[in-house]
Amino acid sequence: MAVKRTADVDWIGGLMDGDGTIVATSTGLLPQLGVTWKARVDDAEEGTTTSPEELIAAAHASCFAMAFSAGLVGSGWEPEEIKVHCEVSFETGLGITQSALTAHVTVDGLSDEKIREVAERAKLTCPVSRALAGIDITLELPDLALPEPEAEDAPEHGADGGAVSPKLQAAASDEAAATLRPPWLGLTNWWRSSNAPTSRRSAGCPIRPSTTTAARRRRSVGA
Protein backbone atom coordinates (compact mmCIF):
# COMPACT_ATOMS: atom_id res chain seq x y z
CA MET A 1 0.00 0.00 0.00
CA ALA A 2 1.41 3.38 -1.02
CA VAL A 3 2.33 5.89 1.68
CA LYS A 4 1.08 9.36 0.77
CA ARG A 5 2.41 12.75 1.84
CA THR A 6 0.62 16.06 1.34
CA ALA A 7 1.37 19.77 1.30
CA ASP A 8 -0.94 22.79 1.00
CA VAL A 9 0.05 26.10 -0.57
CA ASP A 10 -1.83 29.41 -0.67
CA TRP A 11 -0.91 31.77 -3.53
CA ILE A 12 -2.02 35.41 -3.83
CA GLY A 13 -1.47 37.63 -6.87
CA GLY A 14 0.18 37.07 -10.23
CA LEU A 15 3.34 35.21 -11.05
CA MET A 16 5.83 38.08 -10.97
CA ASP A 17 4.38 40.15 -8.13
CA GLY A 18 2.53 37.45 -6.20
CA ASP A 19 3.65 35.33 -3.31
CA GLY A 20 2.70 32.03 -1.75
CA THR A 21 2.94 30.24 1.55
CA ILE A 22 3.35 26.58 2.34
CA VAL A 23 0.67 26.52 5.02
CA ALA A 24 0.53 22.86 5.97
CA THR A 25 2.12 19.45 5.43
CA SER A 26 0.94 15.97 6.31
CA THR A 27 3.41 15.63 9.20
CA GLY A 28 3.08 19.20 10.43
CA LEU A 29 6.84 19.36 10.96
CA LEU A 30 7.59 22.01 8.33
CA PRO A 31 6.92 25.58 9.44
CA GLN A 32 4.98 27.92 7.20
CA LEU A 33 7.37 28.85 4.39
CA GLY A 34 7.04 31.68 1.91
CA VAL A 35 7.57 30.99 -1.81
CA THR A 36 7.93 33.53 -4.62
CA TRP A 37 8.94 33.64 -8.26
CA LYS A 38 11.81 35.99 -7.42
CA ALA A 39 13.26 33.37 -5.09
CA ARG A 40 13.55 31.03 -8.08
CA VAL A 41 15.38 33.44 -10.37
CA ASP A 42 17.20 35.89 -8.08
CA ASP A 43 19.87 34.88 -5.57
CA ALA A 44 19.27 38.13 -3.70
CA GLU A 45 15.97 36.72 -2.47
CA GLU A 46 17.72 33.94 -0.53
CA GLY A 47 17.05 34.06 3.18
CA THR A 48 13.56 35.51 2.89
CA THR A 49 11.58 32.89 0.99
CA THR A 50 12.13 29.36 -0.31
CA SER A 51 11.55 27.86 -3.77
CA PRO A 52 10.45 24.55 -5.27
CA GLU A 53 14.06 23.90 -6.28
CA GLU A 54 15.27 24.27 -2.70
CA LEU A 55 12.65 21.80 -1.52
CA ILE A 56 13.59 19.38 -4.30
CA ALA A 57 17.27 19.68 -3.32
CA ALA A 58 16.40 18.73 0.25
CA ALA A 59 14.32 15.80 -0.96
CA HIS A 60 17.00 14.53 -3.36
CA ALA A 61 19.83 14.83 -0.83
CA SER A 62 17.96 12.94 1.88
CA CYS A 63 16.69 10.26 -0.52
CA PHE A 64 20.17 9.66 -1.94
CA ALA A 65 21.64 9.43 1.59
CA MET A 66 19.12 6.71 2.46
CA ALA A 67 19.84 4.73 -0.71
CA PHE A 68 23.62 5.13 -0.27
CA SER A 69 23.43 3.91 3.34
CA ALA A 70 21.27 0.95 2.37
CA GLY A 71 23.76 -0.02 -0.35
CA LEU A 72 26.72 0.12 2.02
CA VAL A 73 24.92 -1.95 4.66
CA GLY A 74 23.91 -4.42 1.94
CA SER A 75 27.61 -4.78 1.09
CA GLY A 76 28.35 -5.67 4.70
CA TRP A 77 29.66 -2.32 5.93
CA GLU A 78 28.04 0.12 8.34
CA PRO A 79 28.76 3.77 7.43
CA GLU A 80 29.72 6.04 10.31
CA GLU A 81 28.47 9.20 8.63
CA ILE A 82 27.18 10.35 5.26
CA LYS A 83 26.94 14.02 4.32
CA VAL A 84 25.17 14.97 1.11
CA HIS A 85 24.96 18.36 -0.59
CA CYS A 86 22.51 18.84 -3.45
CA GLU A 87 22.30 21.77 -5.85
CA VAL A 88 19.26 21.98 -8.12
CA SER A 89 19.51 24.31 -11.13
CA PHE A 90 16.62 26.32 -12.58
CA GLU A 91 16.79 28.28 -15.85
CA THR A 92 14.07 30.64 -16.99
CA GLY A 93 12.48 29.26 -20.13
CA LEU A 94 13.90 25.78 -19.58
CA GLY A 95 12.84 24.91 -16.05
CA ILE A 96 14.73 22.56 -13.75
CA THR A 97 17.78 21.39 -15.67
CA GLN A 98 20.12 19.62 -13.23
CA SER A 99 20.50 18.11 -9.78
CA ALA A 100 24.13 17.91 -8.66
CA LEU A 101 24.91 15.66 -5.69
CA THR A 102 28.11 15.83 -3.65
CA ALA A 103 28.63 13.15 -0.98
CA HIS A 104 31.13 12.64 1.82
CA VAL A 105 31.11 9.27 3.56
CA THR A 106 33.04 7.80 6.46
CA VAL A 107 33.27 4.01 6.34
CA ASP A 108 36.16 1.76 7.34
CA GLY A 109 37.36 -1.34 5.56
CA LEU A 110 35.82 -0.68 2.15
CA SER A 111 37.80 0.25 -0.93
CA ASP A 112 37.19 3.53 -2.75
CA GLU A 113 36.22 1.58 -5.85
CA LYS A 114 33.49 -0.31 -3.99
CA ILE A 115 32.22 2.84 -2.29
CA ARG A 116 32.00 4.60 -5.66
CA GLU A 117 30.14 1.64 -7.16
CA VAL A 118 27.57 1.69 -4.36
CA ALA A 119 27.19 5.48 -4.61
CA GLU A 120 26.65 5.41 -8.38
CA ARG A 121 24.00 2.72 -7.97
CA ALA A 122 22.26 4.82 -5.31
CA LYS A 123 22.29 7.83 -7.61
CA LEU A 124 20.54 5.85 -10.33
CA THR A 125 18.02 3.97 -8.21
CA CYS A 126 16.95 6.24 -5.36
CA PRO A 127 13.25 7.13 -5.77
CA VAL A 128 13.81 10.87 -6.15
CA SER A 129 16.45 10.29 -8.85
CA ARG A 130 13.95 8.15 -10.71
CA ALA A 131 11.32 10.88 -10.34
CA LEU A 132 13.83 13.37 -11.79
CA ALA A 133 14.76 11.13 -14.71
CA GLY A 134 14.07 13.94 -17.19
CA ILE A 135 17.00 16.09 -16.01
CA ASP A 136 20.77 15.70 -15.70
CA ILE A 137 21.86 14.14 -12.38
CA THR A 138 25.53 14.22 -11.41
CA LEU A 139 27.48 12.84 -8.45
CA GLU A 140 30.81 13.91 -6.99
CA LEU A 141 32.74 11.99 -4.32
CA PRO A 142 35.67 14.33 -3.54
CA ASP A 143 37.07 12.19 -0.71
CA LEU A 144 37.63 9.16 -2.92
CA ALA A 145 40.45 8.44 -5.32
CA LEU A 146 39.60 9.07 -8.94
CA PRO A 147 38.79 5.92 -10.92
CA GLU A 148 41.57 4.63 -13.14
CA PRO A 149 41.07 5.32 -16.85
CA GLU A 150 39.95 2.34 -18.86
CA ALA A 151 42.70 0.59 -20.82
CA GLU A 152 42.57 0.70 -24.61
CA ASP A 153 40.98 -2.29 -26.24
CA ALA A 154 43.60 -4.97 -26.91
CA PRO A 155 43.42 -7.04 -30.11
CA GLU A 156 41.36 -10.15 -29.69
CA HIS A 157 43.01 -13.57 -29.90
CA GLY A 158 41.75 -16.95 -30.99
CA ALA A 159 41.91 -20.24 -29.13
CA ASP A 160 45.47 -20.85 -30.40
CA GLY A 161 46.66 -17.49 -29.10
CA GLY A 162 46.92 -15.90 -32.54
CA ALA A 163 45.35 -12.57 -33.35
CA VAL A 164 41.88 -12.75 -34.85
CA SER A 165 41.56 -11.08 -38.23
CA PRO A 166 39.26 -8.04 -38.59
CA LYS A 167 36.99 -10.05 -40.93
CA LEU A 168 36.47 -12.75 -38.31
CA GLN A 169 35.84 -10.10 -35.66
CA ALA A 170 33.24 -8.48 -37.90
CA ALA A 171 31.58 -11.83 -38.55
CA ALA A 172 31.46 -12.56 -34.83
CA SER A 173 29.96 -9.13 -34.21
CA ASP A 174 27.31 -9.75 -36.87
CA GLU A 175 26.49 -13.12 -35.33
CA ALA A 176 26.22 -11.58 -31.87
CA ALA A 177 24.02 -8.78 -33.21
CA ALA A 178 21.75 -11.35 -34.83
CA THR A 179 21.14 -13.01 -31.48
CA LEU A 180 20.07 -9.66 -30.01
CA ARG A 181 17.51 -8.83 -32.67
CA PRO A 182 13.94 -8.66 -31.43
CA PRO A 183 12.00 -11.86 -32.20
CA TRP A 184 9.44 -10.08 -34.33
CA LEU A 185 12.05 -8.65 -36.71
CA GLY A 186 12.38 -11.87 -38.71
CA LEU A 187 8.62 -12.15 -39.17
CA THR A 188 8.43 -8.54 -40.34
CA ASN A 189 11.15 -9.04 -42.95
CA TRP A 190 9.52 -12.28 -44.13
CA TRP A 191 6.13 -10.56 -44.52
CA ARG A 192 7.65 -7.71 -46.52
CA SER A 193 9.56 -10.02 -48.88
CA SER A 194 6.61 -12.36 -49.44
CA ASN A 195 4.30 -9.46 -50.28
CA ALA A 196 6.68 -7.44 -52.45
CA PRO A 197 5.85 -7.59 -56.24
CA THR A 198 9.29 -8.88 -57.26
CA SER A 199 7.97 -11.20 -60.03
CA ARG A 200 5.01 -11.46 -62.37
CA ARG A 201 3.58 -14.26 -60.28
CA SER A 202 3.81 -12.29 -57.01
CA ALA A 203 2.33 -9.27 -58.81
CA GLY A 204 -0.72 -11.31 -59.85
CA CYS A 205 0.20 -11.56 -63.57
CA PRO A 206 -0.15 -14.89 -65.43
CA ILE A 207 3.11 -16.44 -66.64
CA ARG A 208 2.98 -17.22 -70.35
CA PRO A 209 4.77 -20.30 -71.69
CA SER A 210 7.93 -19.68 -73.63
CA THR A 211 7.95 -19.76 -77.46
CA THR A 212 9.97 -22.99 -77.50
CA THR A 213 7.45 -24.74 -75.25
CA ALA A 214 4.51 -23.60 -77.42
CA ALA A 215 6.21 -24.83 -80.65
CA ARG A 216 6.82 -28.26 -79.13
CA ARG A 217 3.16 -28.52 -78.18
CA ARG A 218 2.06 -27.70 -81.80
CA ARG A 219 4.42 -30.31 -83.27
CA SER A 220 3.15 -32.95 -80.88
CA VAL A 221 -0.47 -32.19 -81.83
CA GLY A 222 0.28 -32.24 -85.62
CA ALA A 223 2.06 -35.55 -85.32
Structure overview:
There is one protein chain. This protein has 223 residues and is of the alpha+beta class. Among the domains are: 1-50, no CATH class; 51-145, 2-Layer Sandwich (GMP Synthetase, Chain A, domain 3). The protein is 38% helix and 20% strand. The protein is built from seven helices and six strands.
**Main sheet attributes: strand count, strand direction, barrel closure:** 3 strands, antiparallel
Counted beta strands:
6
- Spell out the CATH superfamily of the domain at 51-145: K homology (KH) domain
The SS-based structural class is alpha+beta
- Percentage of β-strand residues: 15-25%
Global mean pLDDT: 78
Give the uncertain stretches in residue-range form: 175-192, 198-213
SSE topology sketch:
Layout: E1 7-12, E2 19-25, E3 33-35, H1 38-41, H2 52-74, E4 81-91, E5 95-106, H3 112-125, H4 127-131, E6 136-140, H5 166-179, H6 184-195, H7 211-222
Parallel strand pairs: 5-6
Antiparallel strand pairs: 1-2, 2-3, 4-5
Helix pairs in contact: 2-3
